[in-house]
């Protein structure tokens, strides 16, 4: 029983522990805790390493606008006509170098974005393809000095003639993108070092010049959602070329490596890249999309991003020095060394109609020229991205320079590029599939498994304890029934009061013969002895055939205070004895013996007249459960012996002084 109680208690304890675990899982959400911990940037940490050197395939595809009617345009016979050539594809090795962790939970770094030529992705294009493009240096100088005093303009005209500079030049695709030799650039570097610090002018080269940049990013402490986002750019949270937070604040923007984590459906995210010269907001559109094993949402540029306040009043801060470009353009002169550079969507998509009408060859197509980011909202991981921007030169009145006068008030397209990541590599997809799809199952599975196990164990333990208690109660009842059966048997023999309760060691045979002075004498002849023995064997057989009676008898032996009661008659000495084994602490045995010779004739007569009743009483004595079990009837553990070899009657108990017998003897 002790083992059963311990087992039930152990099951109850485990059940309560499991339910407590389920509650803790529901309250604290262990997956969220683990995931937030993983998002924090720590030196040599997994997410930090992915951010420092993203193992992704990031490309830039460049399309040049080759001028096809240079002579006719310069002569004034035709408007500018261009054709798109490309793509020229380079792989961008994006890294964050010289990383330093700061005490204010930020990390400082210098970015690096070297490009590697990808001929196999360039669709037959080569870096040495000849193209006819704008002379950026000459047109930029003309634009910047168009309103200067006459003497300045005359000096520049002389310089243009001496260097044989032309507003449209023939060059290779690589030279135009990464710089080509220019006498004007060399002169500018010599005489105006604070303005031009380079001898070659190339749009992509300048766009990917990060030599003077230093950036600070958040580590994610205390807010893991902000890990990997901008804290400052060049030491400031705002860009100096714009006024107002809407246009200048780059704090919490992403450089494309990682966006804000735990993005809400209606929440916008911010993107900043040096080549765009501004932060731009992205918002969610469309339904969930699947890339590899991960799911994300499309994020696109905000509506009217380049409207300069024509539609969105907040965008007026993008009007440089109060001069607003036509809708669809943004003036980024301050980010490109003072060159009159403006940005737009490819082919002037979503721009002013005049932009397209002034240049032949513009074919905007939203399907081909729209930008989109696919972002996994919980992690902020970009699953795919495509950023498409066009670089243009815009001009004011250039009539003071006859060689470039044809470009007055014209916005001429030069190239457009797409920074793209088609998808995550398989290794990264598998890793984040575990983090984002498999690991989240920890919360529901942990909760339900712990809850079901806890409830099951509690139910099982309670049921087991209940059944055990019921079984124990039945056994106790059987024991009590066995004890009272013995007491009732003795009462039947003695004719005692029916409401008397006897302790097993205090059972007494009481005289119940009305009006008789000498009672409890049972006489039986030798023939009656034989008949009684036969009934005794049948009674024992009946008990063997009834396991319930046998078990109850056996069970009643446990803890009994008296296991042996012997009633015998010695035919030689003509005496009778009652032997009782007292099972108290001393385990004494009490034997009372007395002679039966003094029995008078009245007793004998009464015995002879009631022979049949006495036989039935003897059978009842044996079969009513006095003995502990059928086997005990044949053994000495609990037995009743009837020895009647001399053919005389026997007396279970009688007071010696009534018959003149001997005194009780105690052993």
Automatic annotation (TrEMBL):
InterPro entries: CD36/SCARB1/SNMP1, CD36_fam. The keyword DNA-binding does not apply. GO terms for cellular component: cytoplasm; plasma membrane. One of its GO terms (molecular function) is scavenger receptor activity. The keyword Transmembrane applies. It comes from the Eukaryota. It is found in: Cell membrane. It is a multi-pass membrane protein. Its main location: membrane. The gene is LOC6902757. Belongs to the CD36 family. This is Scavenger receptor class B member 1 isoform X4. Keywords: Cell membrane, Disulfide bond, Glycoprotein, Membrane, Receptor, Transmembrane, Transmembrane helix. Pfam families: CD36.
């Amino acid at each position: 029983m002790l083992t059963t109680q311990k087992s039930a208690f152990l099951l109850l304890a485990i059940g309560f522990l499991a339910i407590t675990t389920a509650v803790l899982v529901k309250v604290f959400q262990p997956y969220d805790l683990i995931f937030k911990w993983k998002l924090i940037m720590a030196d040599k940490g997994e997410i930090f390493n992915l951010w420092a050197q993203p193992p992704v395939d990031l490309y830039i595809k460049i399309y040049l606008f080759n001028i096809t009617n240079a002579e006719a345009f310069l002569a004034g016979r035709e408007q500018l006509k261009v054709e798109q050539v490309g793509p020229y594809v380079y792989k961008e090795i994006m890294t964050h170098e010289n990383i330093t962790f700061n005490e204010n939970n930020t990390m400082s770094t210098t970015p690096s974005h070297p490009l590697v030529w990808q001929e196999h992705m360039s669709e037959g294009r080569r870096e040495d393809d000849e193209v006819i493009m704008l002379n950026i240096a000459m047109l930029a100088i003309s634009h910047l000095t168009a309103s200067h005093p006459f003497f300045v303009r005359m000096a520049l005209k002389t310089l243009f003639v001496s260097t044989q500079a032309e507003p449209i030049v023939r060059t290779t695709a690589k030279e135009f993108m990464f710089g080509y030799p220019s006498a004007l650039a060399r002169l500018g570097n010599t005489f105006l070092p604070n303005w031009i610090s380079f001898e070659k002018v190339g749009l992509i080269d300048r766009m990917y010049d990060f030599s003077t940049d230093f950036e600070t990013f958040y580590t994610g402490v205390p807010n893991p959602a902000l890990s990997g986002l901008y804290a400052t750019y060049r030491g400031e949270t705002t860009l100096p070329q714009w006024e107002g937070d809407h246009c200048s604040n780059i704090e919490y923007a992403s450089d494309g490596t990682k966006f804000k984590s735990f993005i809400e459906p209606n929440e916008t995210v911010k993107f900043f890249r040096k080549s765009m010269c501004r932060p731009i907001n992205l918002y969610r559109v469309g339904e969930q999309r699947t890339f590899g094993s991960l799911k994300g949402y499309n994020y696109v540029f905000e509506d009217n991003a380049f409207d300069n306040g024509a539609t969105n009043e907040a965008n007026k801060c993008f009007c440089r020095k109060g001069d607003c470009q036509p809708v669809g353009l943004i003036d980024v002169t301050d980010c490109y060394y003072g060159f009159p550079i403006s940005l737009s969507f490819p082919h002037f998509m979503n721009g002013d109609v005049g932009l397209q009408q002034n240049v032949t060859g513009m074919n905007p197509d939203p399907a081909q020229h729209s930008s989109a980011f696919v972002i996994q909202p919980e992690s902020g991981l970009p699953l795919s991205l495509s950023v498409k921007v066009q670089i243009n030169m815009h001009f004011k009145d250039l009539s003071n320079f006859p060689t470039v006068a044809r470009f007055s008030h014209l916005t001429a397209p030069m190239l457009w590029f797409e920074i793209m990541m088609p998808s995550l590599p398989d290794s990264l997809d598998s890793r984040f599939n575990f983090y984002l799809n498999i690991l989240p199952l920890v919360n529901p599975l942990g909760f339900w498994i712990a809850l079901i196990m806890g409830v099951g164990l509690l139910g099982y333990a309670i049921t087991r304890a209940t059944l055990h208690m019921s079984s124990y109660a039945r056994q106790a009842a059987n024991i009590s029934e066995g004890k009272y059966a013995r007491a009732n048997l003795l009462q039947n023999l003695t004719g005692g009061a029916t409401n008397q309760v006897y302790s097993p060691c205090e059972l007494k045979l009481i005289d119940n013969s009305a009006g008789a002075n000498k009672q409890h004498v049972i006489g039986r002849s030798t023939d009656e002895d034989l008949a009684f023995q036969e009934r005794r064997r049948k009674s024992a057989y009946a008990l063997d055939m009834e396991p319930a009676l046998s078990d109850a008898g056996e069970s009643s032996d446990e803890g009994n205070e008296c296991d042996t009661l012997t009633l015998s008659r010695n035919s030689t000495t003509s005496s009778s004895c009652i032997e009782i084994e007292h099972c108290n602490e001393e385990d004494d045995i009490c034997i009372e013996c007395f002679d039966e010779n003094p029995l008078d004739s009245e007793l004998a007569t009464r015995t002879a007249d009631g022979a049949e009743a006495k036989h039935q009483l003897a059978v009842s004595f044996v079969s009513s459960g006095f003995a502990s079990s059928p086997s005990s009837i044949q053994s000495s553990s609990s037995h009743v012996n009837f020895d009647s070899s001399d053919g005389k009657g026997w007396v279970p108990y009688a007071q010696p002084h009534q018959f003149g017998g001997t005194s009780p003897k105690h052993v």
